[in-house]
Amino acid sequence: MEPHEAAERFVAWLDGRVTAEGRGDERVDLDANPVGVFWLGRLAPESEAAKSVRRERRMDPCAIGMRLRPETDGMWSFSASIKAVAWNQVAEDKWHKTDAVLVTVPVHVRAGDESRGFGGDAIADAFASVGAPGLAAQLRVTDESSWRGAPELVIELVNVTPEDVRKRGERHLFEVELEITGLRTMPFVLESLPDSFRYDRDMPAIGINCGVVRHPDGRLVTTDTVVVDRKRPEYNFDATDPDVLDLTFNSLASDPVSRIGELIRAYREWGERHWSEAQLFERARNDRWQPEMMEEAKRAAVDYREELDRLDRGLAALKRDQRLQRAFSLMNIAMAMASRGKYDRWRPFQVGFVVSVLTSFATENGDWNHVETVWFTTGGGKTETYLALLVLAAFYDRLRGKKTGITAWSRFPLRMLSLQQTQRFADALGAAELVRRDHKVPGAPISLGYFVGANATPNEIPLVPTDINPIDVEKEDWSRYLVLTSCPFCGGKDVYTTLYRGNWTLRHLCRNGDCPSKGEPLPFYVVDQEIYRFLPTVVIGTLDKASLIAMQANMRGFFNGPAGKCKQPMHGYTYARRSTRPSGCLVPGCKAEVEPISDADRNRFAPSFRLQDELHLLRDSLGAVDSHYESLMDSLQEQLAGTRPKIIASSATLTGYDRQVDVLYQRPGRVFPVPGPSARESFWSRETDRLLRRFVAVWPRGVTLEWVNDRTLTILQQSVRRLRTQPHQVCAEVGVSPVFKDFLLDLYGTNVIYGNTVRDVEAALRSTGTQVPVTPLNVVSLTGQTKFDEVREALERLEDPKVDFDQRIHVVTASSMMSHGVDVDRLNVMTVLGVPLTTAEFIQATARVGRAHPGLIYVVHKIGRERDATVFSHFAPFVRQGDRFVEPIPVTRSSRRVLELTTPAAIESRRLFVHEPKSPGKRLTTIDLLRKYFAMAGVGAEQEARACAAALGIDESKYLAFEDIKDYLEAYFDRLVDSGFGAKFPNELFDRDRKPMLSLRDVEAQIPISDD
To answer: Which of 142, 473, 554, 649 could make an SS bond with 154 (beta carbons 3.0 to 4.6 A apart)?
Structure first.
């Protein structure tokens, strides 16, 4: 037996344990009222549910059933089989379960029947015969054909036990199941999704307070949970099988043109088979496509041909440009080194994406202006794909003469950047630097900057502590700023941080004596001031850092070049002069002379790329604000250096990406790869029969979501620990050899509890300490509020667990902070507390488990919410066709409220980067200096308003928006020329609540909102 099969069986066994405990299948005696023990398979009496409000009725329903579409009109005849048990209280705090009753009821329904009852006497007699007299249930059938426009029946099993018999807990039915046989039905069509030639919208039935499974023989059976399996994709098959097509790093490094030519040839031949007009017409006939489905397929075929053309043009660029070809080869050598033997080849789509962008390197044509979005299955390798592109760009910059400066700025829309994501960047760029040295590529070392700010790493390190910056260099524990978990040069774990006072840098160093670093600092910068001083090749950071363009003159290196370079060795680049740094050098106290950089040389510093990860998260107010800042950054670079960067993005969804890209960047967008002719197969990937993730939808009955989460966690942990203490017995139950004990214990011994709000996460965290009777239970919490060093420690413990199971992390409670960039193969079990508010978050969050091994995910629905109830009703298509349920990204750049927030940023960034370098003393730090400069340059309110509007991407034809900007600038200039206004510094010209934003998220005052 293969390990993967053993893991699949263990996942099925774990799910079976939770379901059995939730229903009470294996319990016969209890010391508590079963109503407070079981959360699945139970029905409350109708009399109790009728007294309750709608939400409570949903939480403890009195009926289960299904909605069906019979094939024919008129009289319908079929059989309904009812299965259930009862519990009797036999003593104080003692309960005993009866034998199961199984009743088959013949049903004959006439047209127009409404809530017609069947089988009541037979069901009551059956309960009495097993020792539960007084229990009563009834099958009710309603014909809704007349107002549905087609034959449709509602079939429900209702608990009609009266109030005056039996005690409260005894009036419930348990382990309830309803089965319908002998009725030929037609499927429902999921009308919330558009018809598509790629997808099946059919649903055999719609469950009522439950799920429904259709068996191959036509039986329809209710289920207490809805189980949906997603299959693991494969990426190398048929024409891209490794035995057919060599996409190893070494092969692409030695002969890239031939290998890429073979890939494109295979893609062309595949397309001729799958996208030809004859093939589409054959599919249309066999699958009975509607005309609009055929039109959609024809448009998709055009998308395929356009993608093929881009690949052809990328290959032509590679053949034509020897520098590009060499950079491509060096990139493959570097990525082979960065992989450290974990893999030795590319997946076809990864090579395809890089090739599709190559034409942008060769010529700054229309391709350069396009926003390239890489879209692929989460966990499919998107990060490595754009890392390859970054390394390629770094080498190409060096070979074309850009020997230093930022090649790319990669931005993530999270408050805290994933340390794992950062390590992957560091490994790729560290390998690139070693390759640069070995192949004697000229220029500065290839390096990485970690640009996230004071919550994780210092903005600057002061000579002495201040109220604003309390770092004390004499007492500071520099280890808390350790970002790397391993050395990007040698892979060793012995990395440490220290302050080197010689040039005032916070260094990451490796203690390994055999490391290629040879004791020198690693090319990795984590202090903002150092990033400005040394301009790393790639800067990786959070989205919010864009707000610094309105506050930091040192950000000039992100759009053009610095003012000069300090003549003091290792001090780095210099910027605008200030009273605290008279020469412009950012090393505290430095007064050395500066070697100026000419305008021609300065332009060569302009970044080539700006990367946006998780594009789908730029929505609502964050997306609106960012759209203005994107325009500002483009405007600054174009005005200073004469170029705009190429924009690369990655996204978890295709829904509305073209409009979103247009709003955010005011550029055309395109995606790679385009979807294939089937939802399950394209040229780039296809589904296998191996389990990727098992999703289980849970509808808690009569108990809270939090209680179900505690019980689920308890059962999962107890089951895994049984594997540890009773390996032979558990492995026999699972159906695997005991040799897999340690393997399974390692993969399924840690549970993730994912909350949609910090409040949910905190509640789950508290419960683990009081409501889960498992010891020891080691718990960590990962949210935006978790301290940086705690996140680092938790990830290290998860990736490299202790040998002793008792010392490992057993539970991770997490918020959306974990839904991006966390990649730990040992995380394979998750409980989701309520359906996330967006489908994209659901896709991203659940993708954190089951990345390399079969995963098990419980989605515990907050059934009182309409969204959760709706998702439960069509959970199978929601999981299988998740991308189609992703909501269009709500984003606009036309908000006047947002314009109020971003106009100050336009004013200040233009002062710092456009006007200050032109001023006589290259300083505009005071009102007097600014007033004199504008007077000398002849710049007035209307002229500056036009410039600010253009910088923000606001067309003057947008009358109201442009008038707002004009009004703002007129007020600004009125204060500027008013010598009695009393302001000393330029930022005092703004209203207190209208100064440049400190964060792109500071749109409105935030208040906590709960759905409880």
So the answer is: 142
Dihedral sign, Cα of residue 697, residue 702, residue 707, residue 710: negative
Of 461, 456, 379, which Cα lies nearest the Cα of 693? 379
CB 508 within 8 A of CB 499: no
pTM of this prediction? 0.91
The residue-averaged pLDDT of 322-341 equals: 96
Interval 568-586: pLDDT, tens: 999 999 999 998 899 999 9
pLDDT of residue 21: 97
Assigned token pair, 471: 């770092």
Alpha-carbon gap, residue 426 to 447, rounded angstroms: 8
Helical H runs in 499-543? 528-534
What is the distance between the alpha carbons of residues 26 and 31, in angstroms, rounded to a whole number?
Answer: 15
Please give the C-alpha separations between residue 457 and each of 2, 116, 479, in angstroms, as whole numbers. 45, 69, 11
Q: Which candidate, 536, 290, 571, places its Cα nearest to that of 410?
A: 536
Cα–Cα distance for residue pair 223/227, rounded to 1 Å: 9
Token pair recorded at residue 362: 């060769």
Q: Which residues contact 952 (CB under 8 A, 6 or more apart)?
A: 628, 631, 632, 635, 899, 902, 903, 906, 965
Q: In 582-630, where do the E strands start and end?
A: 594-596, 609-612
Region of poorest pLDDT, from 48-57, 117-126, 550-559, 599-608: 48-57
The 3-state DSSP class for residue 773 equals: coil
Q: What is the dihedral of CA 966, 968, 974, 978, to 10 degrees?
A: -160
pLDDT at 313 over 70: yes
Residue 46 amino acid letter: E
Phi-psi group of 97: left, alpha or beta (phi > 0 → left; psi -120 to 50 → alpha; rest → beta): beta
Name residues whose C-beta falls within 8 Å of residue 760's C-beta, 6 or more positions apart in sequence: 815, 833, 834
Rounded Cα distance between 460 and 2, Å, is: 53
For 738-773, what is each residue's pLDDT tens digit? 999 999 999 999 999 999 888 899 999 999 999 999
Based on the number of CB atoms within 10 Å of its own CB, is 378 exposed (0-12), middle (13-18) or buried (19 or more)?
middle
Residue entry with tokens 């150092």: 530
476-481: Cβ within 8 A, 24+ apart: 478/506, 479/789, 480/788, 480/789, 481/456, 481/457, 481/506, 481/526
Answer for the pair 95, 29: CB distance below 8 angstroms, yes or no: yes
